[in-house]
């Protein structure tokens, strides 16, 4: 087994940046009080100021106002709040219809299904072979009863970036609230609430070298939103619960550390991995669009082999990646994203996702391609499929 | 750190024994799991006089437990008579591997089925199969014992998931005691269809769920 571990599953979680930790530390050991009003004690006021400052940085990153950004425990909570908060606020007033895409991540998809069980109607928009929704289909699906459209900014597995500008404008024209899950695009792909009529945006810190357990929801001023988490009056009375101040401070610190230069570097590594795999390993299919994809995302199906076997072999060589294979999932279901883009079982079975971060290097990008080539070759030797073509046994 | 797989499983996964095709095999099979999509192919050579397995090879399109089980059964089966080899159980293979995760039962049991099917294939090709018996509820129940309940890794009969089996004019109706929206419902249904539909005198199979 290799001593050095090369982590390439950064869509799932990332290594914390030391600078983020340094920024957070005082809020564990010194300013650990709850954020109180300016009429209380010093520590509480300092905590309040830190929280306000963090909120300021985060809302600015989306080109919005501080009172439009609330902190949550992460993207799962944010997306739950977006869908259920709007449904609760408008279900009885306007209608009971929601629209989401088929390939949304589970927080959106399962919130929609949960609302369906409570009497709401949900339209699940199809996507094309590269993962894009059809804007005409969206336009035609919106009715007077539609209270919310939720389309992700980019896909968690195949990295396809939707045309949020176009989609949000359609929703605005039709008078429907629009939510986008930007968990994987925040700071990586431009998203401007000042220019695009997006009403709700889910963001999270854990995908960008920030701490786990902190996320946020941008809520455009005037968006109907029912309180869902009951308790105190935190977060403008919208989300009860003790404020996670170290988390908020770390989240805000993280924002400033992601640079355009870093995103270009990730994209160069991504392109190198994709180009090399497609050129050097036969019978491979890129999942998602070649250009309109997250700078940090690679997703390729290796035919005739199974994903869990690939990940396990790679792990033995020191690489951590993920797969859409049914064998890998606890529910024994292949990736709903690969099925959503029209992929068959086999394409999901052999799909591998590589997601890059600040700490990966071009050398590692080359190393994973080389190791993959070896592992795929070995597994294809064992496989009963694809032999006719390769003639290994004939 | 504890891996879900034993050292022996990982060893067989890394260095599978007896991999490949036997071109002039006396018997062969290809088994697939609709639950997760794994497949395994088994090839056998039978010594004419002793009716023992002189060679067993396998190929796998599957996960680590599928590969490791394929590997271990070739070792367990070699040298055995056809009747002995047919009796090799999943438990024996799992024990020889130092244990398999229960959720992986459905992909590891394929190799066992593959070996049995390859032997049946040999027997069919050599006129050693007894006459076709008509399907009864008991025959169906026996087949359902080969369908794994992924929640426990044991079969659906033993884990009391089979609530009812009806056989009327060659049409089969099976009721499974799970809600239809249970995470494993589609996988279990597919696996049942795959096991029952091939019965020679069965026309239609319907799988229903209780909620």
Describe the structure.
Residues 389-394 of chain A have low confidence and may be disordered. Chain A has 394 residues and is of the alpha/beta class. In chain A, strands 2-8-7-6-5-3-4 form a seven-stranded mixed sheet, sandwiched between helices. Chain A folds into two domains: 18-257, Type I PLP-dependent aspartate aminotransferase-like (Major domain) (Aspartate Aminotransferase, domain 2, 3-Layer(aba) Sandwich), CATH 3.40.640.10; 259-390, Aspartate Aminotransferase, domain 1, CATH 3.90.1150.10. Chain A has helices at 18-24, 26-29, 42-61, 75-90, 106-117, 135-141, 164-174, 234-237, 245-257, 260-280, 307-316, 336-340, 345-349, 362-382, 387-390, and strands spanning 6-7, 69-72, 97-101, 121-125, 146-150, 177-181, 200-204, 215-219, 284-286, 297-302, 319-320, 322-323, 351-355. Chain A has 15 helices and 13 strands. Chain B is α+β, with helices and mostly antiparallel strands. Chain B has two domains: 7-125, Sufe protein. Chain: A (Alpha-Beta Complex), CATH 3.90.1010; 137-209, GMP Synthetase, Chain A, domain 3 (2-Layer Sandwich). Helices cover 36% and strands 23% of the residues of chain B. In chain B, strands 1-2-3 form a three-stranded antiparallel sheet. In chain B, strands 6-7-8 form a three-stranded mixed sheet, covered by helices on one side. In chain B, helix 2 (64-77) crosses helix 5. Chain B is flat, with a radius of gyration of 18 Å. The A-B interface holds A 304-306, 308-309, 312-313, 316, 325-328, 330-334, 345-346, 348-349, 381-385, 387, 393 and B 13-14, 16, 19-21, 23, 30, 35-41, 59-64, 66-67, 103, 106-107, 150, 183-184, 186-187.
């Amino acid at each position: 087994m290799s001593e050095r571990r090369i982590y390439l599953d950064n869509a799932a979680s990332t290594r914390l940046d030391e600078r983020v930790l340094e920024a957070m530390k005082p809020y564990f050991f010194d300013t650990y009080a709850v954020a109180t009003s300016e009429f209380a004690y010093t520590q509480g006021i300092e905590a309040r100021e830190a929280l306000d400052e963090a909120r300021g940085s985060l809302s600015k990153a989306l080109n919005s106002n501080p009172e439009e950004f609330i902190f949550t425990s992460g993207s799962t909570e944010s997306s739950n709040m977006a869908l259920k908060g709007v449904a609760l606020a408008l279900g009885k007033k306007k209608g009971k219809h929601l629209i989401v895409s088929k390939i949304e991540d589970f927080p959106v998809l399962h919130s929609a299904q949960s609302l369906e069980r409570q009497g709401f109607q949900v339209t699940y928009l199809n996507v094309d072979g590269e993962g894009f929704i059809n804007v005409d289909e969206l336009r035609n699906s919106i009715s007077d009863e539609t209270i919310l459209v939720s389309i992700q900014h980019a896909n968690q597995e195949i990295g396809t970036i939707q045309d949020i500008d176009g989609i949000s404008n359609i929703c605005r024209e039709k008078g429907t609230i629009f939510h986008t899950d930007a968990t994987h695009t925040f700071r990586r792909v431009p998203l401007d609430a000042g220019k695009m009529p997006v009403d709700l945006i889910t963001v999270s810190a854990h995908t960008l070298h920030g701490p786990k357990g902190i996320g946020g929801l941008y809520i455009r001023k005037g968006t109907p939103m029912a309180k869902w988490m009951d308790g105190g009056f935190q977060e403008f009375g919208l989300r009860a619960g003790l404020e996670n101040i170290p988390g908020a401070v770390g989240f805000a610190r993280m924002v400033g550390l992601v640079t355009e230069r870093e995103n270009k570097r990730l994209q160069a590594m991504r392109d190198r991995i994709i180009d090399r795999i497609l050129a050097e390993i036969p019978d491979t299919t890129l999942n998602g669009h070649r250009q309109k994809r997250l700078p940090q995302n690679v997703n390729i199906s290796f035919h005739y082999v199974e994903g869990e076997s690939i990940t396990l072999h790679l792990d033995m060589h020191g690489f951590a990646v993920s797969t859409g294979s049914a064998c890998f999932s606890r529910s024994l279901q292949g990736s709903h994203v690969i099925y959503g883009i029209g992929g068959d079982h086999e394409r999901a079975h052999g799909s591998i996702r590589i997601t890059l971060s600040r700490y990966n290097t071009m050398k590692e990008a080359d190393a994973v391609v080389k190791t993959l080539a070896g592992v795929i070759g070995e597994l294809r030797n064992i496989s009963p499929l694809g032999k006719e073509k390769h003639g290994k046994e004939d | 750190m504890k891996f879900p797989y034993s050292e022996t499983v990982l060893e067989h996964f890394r260095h599978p024994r007896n991999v490949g095709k036997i071109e002039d095999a006396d018997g062969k099979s290809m088994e697939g799991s609709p639950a997760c999509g794994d497949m395994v192919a088994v090839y056998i050579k039978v010594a004419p006089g002793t009716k023992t397995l002189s060679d067993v090879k396998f190929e796998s399109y599957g996960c680590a437990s599928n590969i490791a089980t394929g590997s271990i059964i070739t070792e367990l089966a070699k040298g055995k008579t056809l009747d002995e080899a047919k009796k090799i159980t999943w438990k024996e293979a799992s024990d020889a591997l130092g244990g398999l995760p229960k959720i992986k039962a459905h992909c590891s049991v394929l190799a066992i089925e593959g070996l049995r099917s390859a032997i049946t294939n040999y027997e069919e090709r050599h006129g050693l199969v007894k006459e076709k018996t008509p399907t009864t509820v008991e025959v169906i129940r026996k087949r359902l014992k080969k369908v794994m309940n992924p929640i426990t890794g044991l079969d659906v009969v033993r884990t009391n998931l089979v609530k009812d089996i009806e056989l009327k004019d060659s049409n089969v109706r099976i009721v499974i005691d799970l809600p239809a929206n249970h995470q494993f419902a589609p996988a279990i249904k597919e696996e049942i269809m795959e096991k029952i539909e091939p019965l020679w005198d069965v026309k239609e199979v319907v799988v229903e769920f209780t909620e």
